[in-house]
Specification:
This protein has about 700 residues and is mostly helical. Among the domains are: about 100 residues, Alpha Horseshoe (Serine Threonine Protein Phosphatase 5, Tetratricopeptide repeat), CATH 1.25.40; about 120 residues, no CATH class. Helix content is about 70%, strand content about 0%.
Length: about 700
Amino acid sequence: MLCEEKSSDSNEANLVSSCGGKFVSELLGSLKKIKEGVNEKSMADFPYFNFPLTNLLISMKKIKEASDLLIVSTNSRNPDPYYYFLDGVISKSLGNNNAAEKSIVKALELLEAVPFLKFVLSEYISNNDKKHVISTSERIIKMGAFNALPFGEIYEYSRKNDSEFSANMIDLFDYAGNDNIYTLRFRRDHFIKTLDDEKAALYSKQIIAMKACNARDVMTYLAILKRSGKGTLIEDVIEVLAERQLNGEVYASFGDYYQSKGEYENAVYHYRKGMEAGYDPNNMPGFPDCLIELKKYSEATDVLSRIKEKGILEIKLFARSGNIEKVVSLIREKKDKTKFDEEVFSFIVLTLWKNSEVRDSLINLYEKWGNPTLGKLISRKLLDSKDLDGSIRIMRNVLKNASLDIENIVLLSETLSKLGREEEATAILRKSLKEISKKEDTQQLFNVLTEINYNAKLHEEVMKAFEDYPMLITKDSLNYIIRSMIELEFYDKAEKLISRLHNKLISQDRFDEYHELLKKREEMAEILYFAVKIMKLEFKTGRKLDQREAIVNAEIPVEIAHKVFEFFEDLDENIKLPQEAYDALSKEILKNIRKKTNIRNINQITISVIFNIMQRKDPVVARNLFIYIRRLLREKRIPKIEDEELNRLLRISLKENIQPDPINMVAKFDIGLNKALDLLALMDYVSKMNQWR
């Protein structure tokens, strides 16, 4: 089978070769008797048998017998290197390392023999002496004994070493001019380590074409192909190995490949072959998964029954086969809250959320357990279904049970900010910043804190966060901080901060962008300063000023006077304005105009009037509101004759003879400008109808 290595030549054959042809028959007979447990005394009469027979006894772990036999071979007048070598091997087997080393050294002094060097090489490998492993291998190769190298040992040792060791060994193999499956593995693994997938794949292809290749060789080749983006070549591998009896793991790997391509029939074929080869179905989760995809629910049930950790597969089987009751039952019967399978519940939430029984069971389970992970899964689905309040309720509960869960804190804060509840979000983030110590987590929270408040135009909150947590600044949060400084007209502060962090947290491009923004805002600030002076004068005098009057009375520098008046005259009619916010603002401003001025006609309203009536005086917002009012006044409106609320307001207007102007309607009925104009459109429609009667 492909998962097994072929054994090397037997010890007996090696011994026959080393003893010489004339002793072959006697030696084979003696070896046979020793293997049968016979140790004839007459063998001592043949000293030339002693060394190979001793070697055989050592290989059979009969150390005492080997030692006794070696003793009779001693000739003090003619010391034999094989005697010292075998004595060293026996000493090593008995744990006497010092004596073993001395004997091996004596043997090598008398004769540099390949068996001696092989033994020494194995010792160097055991002792992780990389330098001597290389040098000893070189000595053996230069003796012309390339094939005598213990390739298996050296290869396994190389797998634990770096690419430098592999490169040195490959140089030796190149010098020898020979290759076998082990040297090819050396070359393949070396190129894997050096990330040269093309060459690694080339050697892998040669290896799997050899009968001695094993499952690891095939799996390695598949991994190389996947990593290098050549996954389609896996089919070539499958074709090459089609006629061979493969290891179950290899079949399973082929199944995984076909599953990833969505070729479930091919995948199932190879998974079945894997099971026939005795491969554990616990290692083939793709098998039942493919069967489920093919709607082979009966076989999927059978395979799943042999798998211990069923995980998501059992739920998937129930869901796909329409057995939702089983899913609901599994959720309701869940008792051990310490054993929460996130993958399983993620699958249930993502695929079966629309089923009300499943959904209610999940929510009940969460309320019973309070598991934060389940809570987060549920809150996300509630968000997806636009149930923001329900999602916030769950996330707040998660916050109680897992106050340090960054993911939940961020999502809760962002959801609150979407509802305009930035104050609540800020409170949660600030509390979390005090409780959490991990820097990267606190930086993430700080980023969210500055972003939420910047987007809500709460620039003072951004500055407060900066003052409290300057150590948490990142590139992202810094952007909100600098822009908030500019919005608040803290130009000097912004410029100092930009200069201090230039080429640190601020790139050159961003540096140039900030300086351009500062320049424009400073110019704009000057323009707005004089625009405000004009608006105050106009409101005080009750009339519009021309440029000459503005230059004289508002002390506007001549060189920028035209830019100041452009602020009032060049109105961007296409500017995007949030209707809900500006309609609410229009209601507040028009009511105050009605209350604090003599203006009763909306066409008499100017930017100056709006600015001076505003509680928080912002010239840009005043101009935008003026644009919004003009835009609504120009809209052609279709009378909403079916609108009950408008009809009710119409009856009151007619009864009380209210002057038909938006200012009066807004003030009387506490409605926004948009609704006031709808009411006037209906009033105009009724008036014309009366004329036709």
